[in-house]
Amino acid sequence: MRKPLLAIYKKLYRQFGPQKWWPADSPFEVIVGAILTQNTAWANVEKAIKNLKQNKLLSLKTLSDTKPSRIARLIKPSGYYNLKTGRIKNFLDCLNDRFEGDLNKLLKQKTGDLRKILLGIKGVGPETADSILLYAANKPIFVIDAYTKRILSRHGIIKKDSDYNDLQYLFMSNLPKDEKLYNEYHALLVRVGKEFCKKKPECRLCPLGGPDGKPDLNFC
DNA sequence: CACCAGGCAAGTA
DNA sequence: TACTTGCATGGT
Question: Is A26 a residue whose pLDDT tops 90?
């Protein structure tokens, strides 16, 4: 199984090149973006991020001192704005109360410890926690999302009822433990998912798809 | 008009 | 454990 996953990666990288993830200016922005993008199109998240930036609120100190109602108004374009305001506040509370408001102190925790801390924040689930681990803390953790599951399922690589942990274990036990590889691979899967695997189950245009629907690694 | 997007938590049986 | 529902805007 090591070879197929690496072969798929190489194929995608050859076709699409580096994706430059995560699109953010700072680890703090990665974390806020990770919460805002929950079940939400990235284009809408960008509007919310821009609003926060224009109001100088994309920092721990300024955002901590901002009333929830104002945050909610500014992040409105990203949807679920009341919910997400609370989730961002939950993260800020954790950082301020347990890590003296020092983001580096939080991000330098051991990978396993950090994952548990993040999952303990209400509103931070496995994908959000792992996105923060990989793209803000640069830890070698593979991020699983709906596209990853859909693509692998349609190509017959996994069973439909595989859960988050099954998928993460599949990638991490069959690929070298390389933060740069995990970073690029997840970004490429999202790219392919957005571009080819939206509706049609056949996925005929997907660059991974051979005539039988399974990955055609000799294609291209 | 309907459907979907880089999820998560709470409620029900 | 295994479903179901609420959360909400903006693009196609």
Answer: yes
Q: What is the pLDDT of residue A218?
A: 46
Domain ranges of chain A: 2-20+143-196, 27-135
Burial grade of A59 (CB within 10 A; 0-12, 13-18, 19 or more): middle
Q: Is A157 helix (H, G, I), strand (E, B) or coil?
A: coil
Q: Which nt is closest to the CA of A129, judged by C1'?
A: B7
CA distances from A165 to A27, A123, A144, A160 (A): 25, 18, 9, 13
Q: Name the residue closest to C7, CA to C1'.
A: A80
Looking at the predicted structure, is the pLDDT value of residue A6 above 60? yes
According to CATH, the superfamily of the domain at A27-135 is: Hypothetical protein; domain 2 (1.10.340.30)
* Whether A184 CB is under 7 Å from strand B: no
- Write down the pLDDT at residue A156: 84
Is residue A168 within 8 A of residue A130, CB to CB? The reply is yes
Q: Closest nucleotide to A22's CA, by C1' atom?
A: B6
pLDDT tens, position by position, A154-200: 888 898 889 999 999 999 999 999 999 999 999 999 999 998 776 55
In this complex, the nucleotide whose C1' atom is nearest to the CA atom of residue A44 is C10
Instruction: Evaluate if the CB of A85 falls below 7 Å from strand B.
Output: no
A155 within 8 A of A213, measured Cβ to Cβ: yes
pTM exceeds 0.90 for this model: yes
Cα separation, A38 vs A134, in Å, equals 16
